[in-house]
Every structure is written in structure tokens, then in C-alpha cells.
Amino acid sequence: MKKELFGKRGFLFGNEAIVRGALESGVGYASSYPGTPATEIGDTFAAIAKDTGIYFEWSVNEKVALEAAAGAVFSGIKALVSMKHYGLNVASDSLLPLVYLGCPFVVVVADDPGSWSSVQAEQDTRWFSRLIHVPTLEPSNSQEAKDMTKFAFQFSQKHKIPVLVRLTTRICYSKSLVNFGKIKKGKKKGKFVKKEFKLGSAQTVALHKKLLEKLKKIRKDCEKSKLNFIEEGRGKIGIITSGVAYIYIKEAFQELKIKLPLLKLGFSYPFPSDKVKNFLKNLKKVIVIEELDPIIEEEVKKFSKKIKIYGKDFFSEAGELKPEDILVNLSKILGKKIDRNLSYNIKNYKEPEKRIPFFCPGCPHRSTFYAVKKALGKKIFAGDIGCYMLGVYEPFRMQDFVVSMGASVGISHGISKASGQKPVIFIGDSTFFHAGLPSLLNLVYNKANALVIVLDNRWTAMTGHQPNPGSGLTGMKKETKIANIEEIAKALGVDFVKTSNVWNFSQFVKDLKQAYSIKGVSVIVAKGECRLAFIRQAVRKGIKLPKFKIKKQDKKLEQLKDFGCPAIKKEKGKWLIDKDLCWSCSICKQLFPDLIEVEK
Amino acid sequence: MKPFNLIVVGYGGQGILTLTDIISKAALKQGYDVKEAELHGLAQRGGSLDCHVRFGGGIHSSLIPRAKADLIIALEALEALRACYWVNKNTVVLINSKIFRSSLNMKKILREIKKFTRKIYVVDADEIVKKETGNILGVNIFMLGYALKKKLLPLKKENVWKAVEERIRKRFLQENRKIFEKSFKY
Ligand SMILES: Cc1ncc(C[n+]2csc(CCOP(=O)(O)OP(=O)(O)O)c2C)c(N)n1
Question: Which of A169, A410, A532, A563 could form a disulfide with A37 if both were Cys (CB 3.0 to 4.6 A apart)?
Fold first, then answer.
């Protein structure tokens, strides 16, 4: 149970505030698939679900999570689904028709400007608002995240439409004090009501027309909404903004001792054109400050031909906006001097060498990459999304491409068919369940030639050890059936399947060689629990694990460089194992049984 | 009070998020408005990590603007250098002398940091904590106590300890108490 979430007020992350907002709205059903920066919305639901009587699940992917939330609404229960931006790419196929059908629920999507934890693309979800026609709210801090979630539930009920709450990394991961309202007990058990949500094969165009009418009404509400507000200021230059930039602008005003007229858009789709026109009436110039794409800017351009607009020519589309970006660019536009400390820093600071993230000590993925290198040498290596992405760095450099969840398999299929070569595919267990199943079936059915290695560490590790169908636990920590990847592969008709223990190194290498030698599709399930999860368990249970040390210095130990364990290093010409870092996986001892021993 | 701007840096796995949370909670206990910014996800797998805590009045952003820090607590030296992004000539930089996976040495790092501020404290926290407890898990708590002892952090010791008690698992509290008290002797 999270104490912070209850009481009169709490010191909350944006992600936690979303959950509090849902509690104040009588939510009964929540679902998600993990993804930074949205993961903790699900984690928080998981922590409070049992005590509050809410149903929560980690679904196998975002599309399923969204559909299931809609199913709860079809049964009369209030529902919320959360995901990171890429999740909506996957789920959007179902969200479009659900807007047509008028299904009221709340969809929370978190973007990641700056790509702090997102390698695929830097994506602005506000385009989806336009594609899907879904009313969109953009909180600027935790208090607004809570309040807007509550508003989203009300508004979705009022207009019978899904409502999108769009977050960004800094809102998800900033904490501040949030004043609470009353918790509302919602229905937890419902009943499917026939006919309320009519599906329309022949009605699609009619439903589209109906939606457009509905959007007109929604726009009227949006024009009047207090979530879009003006703060009075001096002069003929104004600012329009949304999201976290609003907060940085206030910071910059304080620093520069200025106060320009400011329009903040919290309810940003449908676009409140009248309110914006009104704001522009007395202005000569306007500065549009928004993270990522020039969406507000393009809207403003549509109806203000005469006014001078400053936007993406100053505030970059790529990367996140930082408080100093706003400060510096505002000073430039307004012809103001910036603080001497800041200009000194800008002139003299150069970022030192970047830190490259690495596999934890004892990570099963390290064993897998090293075994594949030993067994197969250089091959086409297809990468996918998860902790094992780190195999792209030194000392392995064993990923020729990483695209999106499950794409390792789909792309390899094309390579196999188009070139006749045999790719080696790395895909994590959670990713396999999320998007690997259909593409594995496609490999088999359309007769490709590939080796698929499922790195089964039992958890969705990268996002913080959420359970997946291989874990045997639901989002509410109830035991459930474990999906057996080996059996699944067999059932799909894979030519050769074997489960290998990554901690038995020499056997693992043999298995890989055998699997690769077979023509057709082979699957190796590389089993070894995430070491971080394993060690936490061991500490909790008070289990002491053996540590390893170098028994004898030898030239052969140079090979350890290719193993890349952070606990093993060479200092002053001597190899040593750092006891504070060693997590007892024993692979180094298996590699050099005569040179490495268990510490007594 | 004018906002106090603190940045805690290090690499993933050093207990930075815990330390940041303790400081925020202690500042709340002291009745301040507090804002905190951190990152989760890939940043935790041995990557660089910077967490921001601001307390006092008139704070909008949770991220501390460039060159605006009052104090940097660095659990590792290369990260102290990276944190100079937020340093001005009045900023105090408190550094654990550990260097992790870097080609730079301490002398070079300090020379670079001195271009931004002269107010530098270096302490061998890893070594001290290891001597006291046999492991380095408590380095974050040591650095916190040390900052209080040197009066670099305008928070009361009792409030900070209360926040530690609320945050750290009971099993580890005794060891942390020992480290916390020890840090006041250096
Ligand atoms: C559509 C989509 N949803 C979520 C994510 C976020 N994400 C990145 S990796 C990952 C999980 C990987 O888990 P797994 O495949 O088991 O690998 P592990 O990290 O455990 O090694 C997730 C959920 C994403 N990139 N794309």
C-alpha cells in the first residue's frame, strides 16, 4: 500500500497523481503494459489494487490492455489504461473505432522528449489526438495530472468519448505536493449491456458524421474550459504554451523579471481557436513554446497571418526543452541579457566522456551473448527491445538492428527470404509475448531459415520487473498459469526447440551450435532469471551466495575482456574480481576453472 | 526562503533515488515547499544519473536550471565533473573520491571542476564506509551525513534521520545509523 496516495495531500510523481485522480473518479478497472516513462502508473495501481478493490492487470501488450479496458466500460465499469507513446502505436488500431462507438474511458499516454528511455523514435502523441479525434489534456505538474485525470473521467462520461491524458517524462518523474479531493467508491462488478455500443459495418460513415457533430459540442466546452487560461501581462508580445514548458516559462519570467501575457493550453484538442484568436487580438508578436513538434504553432499560423510568430526557429523540435533553453531563447527574442554565471557556464562547459550502460554483474544476457559469440562467431544478429539491447555496445557489438518490439523476428523473416542467409534473433520473454508470437508463426508458416533465441529472464526486467505470462504471477500478485515458451514454439510447428540453462555454459554453447545447424526455424529458450530480481530474493531470504576470486594470474585471463563483466578488472597488470560487484553467476569460473576459484 | 537547489549525481545502482527521496522528505518535514525531479528506466543500468531537489519558496520547475545549483552531492567523481553543467562560482561540490569506469583521474577531474567553482570537498566515502561495515551499500547515507556535518545542507539532523527511518528497510537501519553517526566524525 502506498501511504503517500492517501490522506489530505501527498508528495507525488505525476504517474502516482494519475492514479489518485482515478481513485477520486471511482475507477474500477485499470490495465497497462509497462514502458518508461509511464510504467509507474501501472506499478502504483498494482500496489493499491487489492486494498482498494480495483481490478488491475499487466496485459500482454498495449492493444490488449486498451481493448480490455473498453470491455470493462462495455460492462458498466469505469476504466483507465496507461502506456508509453509507442504503446499507442500498437493500440491505436482499436482506439479509432472505440471513439466512433463512443466508449467513455481514460487513456493515459506518456511521451519521452529527449528519448531518455526510448530508442525507437522521438514521437509526439498530440498527432494521434488529431488522427483519432480524441479530446486531449496536457498536465504541467502532478497537481494538474491528478485534477485532469478526474476531469477526463467526467468529460468522457459527459460526451461518451475516450479522453487522452498526455504526459511527458518530466511530468511523470517530477514530484511535488498534491492536494487531494474525496475518494469515490466506484462500481467494481458490472454487467455487459447489449446494444449500447452498436458496432457498425454499414454504419461507419454515419458514425463518422455523428462523431464530427459530437466534436463540435466538445469544442464549445473546450473553448470555455478553465484548463485553457490566460495570465495577464505587459506588452505586445505574448506566449502560448502547453505541458511542462509552462512551468519553465514561469521560472524564466522570475529570472528575467518580466511578465508577458501568457496563454496556457491544458485542453489542447480540439484546438480552442476562438480563445487563441481572442488572446492574439491585442498582440503584435507571439512566441509559441511547446516540446517536440510544432503543433500549436501550425494551428496558430492558420488564422493569424499578420502576427509575427516565433516558434520552432528558436525552440528545437528534437530533444526535450530544458528550463535554460526557454530562458536563453526568451532573452534572445526580447533582447535581454542573461545572468553572467549562465553565460560563463555555456561558454566553458563541455560534457565529459559519456557513460555507457552495461549488463549488471551476473546478468543472464551476458552469458547468452558470450555463448552465442563462442558458438556461432559472426552472424546476422537481429536485436529487439529490452535490457538485452545493451548487447549492442562493447564488448559484444552483436546487434545489427533494433527497430521496435517484435521486429527482430519480422525483419529476420524478410532477410531470410530475400537473401537466403540465416539470421540469429535475440528477443526477450516479455517482448516475445508482446509481439513475437505472430511473427514466429510467420517464420514457420512461410518457411524461413532462422535461429530464434528467447532470452527468458522471467520478468519484464528493463522497466522494473513487472510480471509477464512467463512469470506465473498476475499484476495483482496472484498465482496463475505459466506460459511455456518451449511448448508454444512446438505448437507453432518450429523445427527444433530446446530450453537451455544459461548458467551451464558449455552445454549452452553446444545447444546453440546444434540449433543453428538445423535447417528451418529453431528456437532456443535461454533460461536464467534476471540477476537483480534473483539477488533481491536472496537478500530477503538471507541466502549467502559464493563470491569468486582469481587464483592464478595467467595470460589466458585476457579473454575476460570479451566477457565484459563489470566486477572483473585489471589493475596494475593484475586481474581481480571486485567482491562488492560480483553477483555470483559463476560463468567466469566455468570459463577458467584452473584460474578462478570460490572465495572461502 | 530563497529556493535551495540540490543535485545528487552518480551512476545507476548507487542508491541515488533513495538519497534524493530522503532529502525531499526531510525538507517537507521542515515545512518547505519541495520539488523533485528524477529519471527511471535505462538511466539506472550503470548510466549517469542526476536527481534534483529544490526546497524553499517561489519554485516552479522541478528541474534546476543550468548554473543554478547551490550544492552538488556526487557519489562518484566523473559524475561530479558532468554535474558542472549546474555549477556556478558559488556552488559547493561535495565529491566521493571514487572513480568508476573512466579514463580520467582525480587530479584531472578536480582541475576541470575548479574552472567552475573553488568550493570543493572531497571525501573517501567508499573506503570509510567499507572499513566500518564491510560493504559500500551505505555510501549514500554517509554522504548525506557528511553534508549535514559540514553545514552544506540547510536541514536539521533529526528531520533527516526521521526521513531515513521512514525510507530504509528495518533490517538495514542499524547499519545505516552507524554510518550516519560516523559521518559526523569526519
Ligand atoms: C510498444 C512498446 N511498449 C513498451 C515498450 C517499453 N519496453 C521496452 S523494453 C520492454 C520490456 C522488455 O522485456 P523483455 O523482452 O522481457 O526483456 P528484458 O528487459 O527482461 O531483458 C518494454 C516493455 C516499448 N519499447 N514499446
Answer: A169
Over residues A209-260, the pLDDT tens digits come to 999 999 999 999 999 999 999 999 999 999 999 999 999 999 999 999 999 9
Taking the CA of residue B39 and the nearest CA in chain A, the distance in Å comes to 6
- Using the mean position of ligand 1's atoms as its centre, give its distance from the Cα of residue A432 in Å: 10
A117 with B41: Cβ contact below 8 A: yes
The reply to whether A339 touches chain B by the CB within 8 Å rule is yes
Total structural domains within chain B:
1
Segment (H or E) for B8: strand B4-11
Is the Cβ of A360 closer than 8 Å to some Cβ of chain B?
yes
- Looking at residue A529, its amino acid is E
Q: Is residue A59 part of a domain?
A: yes
d(CA A140, CA A158): 24
User: A453 and A506: one domain?
Assistant: yes
**Neighbouring C-beta atoms of residue B115, cutoff 10 Å:** 12
Do A163 and A23 sit in the same domain of this protein?
yes
Q: How many domains does chain A have?
A: 4
- Residue A68 C-alpha to ligand 1 middle, in angstroms? 20
Same domain, A297 and A216: no
**Pairwise CB contact (< 8 Å): B116 & A176:** no
Specify the CATH number for the domain of residue A266.
3.40.50.920
Those of residues 249-308 in A touching chain B at CB distance below 8 A are 250-251, 254-255
Taking alpha carbons only, the member of A487, A481, A495, A479 closest to residue A525 is: A487
Q: How far apart are CA B178 and CA B176, in angstroms?
A: 5
The C-alpha angle A26, A30, A36, rounded to 5 degrees, equals: 125
Q: Considering the entire predicted model, what is its pTM?
A: 0.97
Range of the domain at B165: 4-183
Ligand 1, closest atom to CA A384?
Answer: 15
Which among A176, A247, A322 is the top mutation candidate for probing chain B, defined by the most B β-carbons within 10 Å of its own β-carbon?
A176
Do A56 and A165 have their domain in common? yes
**Domain residue limits at A60:** 7-188+198-224
Residue A34 CB–ligand 1 contact under 6 Å = yes
| pLDDT (tens digit per residue) in A106-140 | 999 999 999 999 999 999 999 999 999 999 999 99
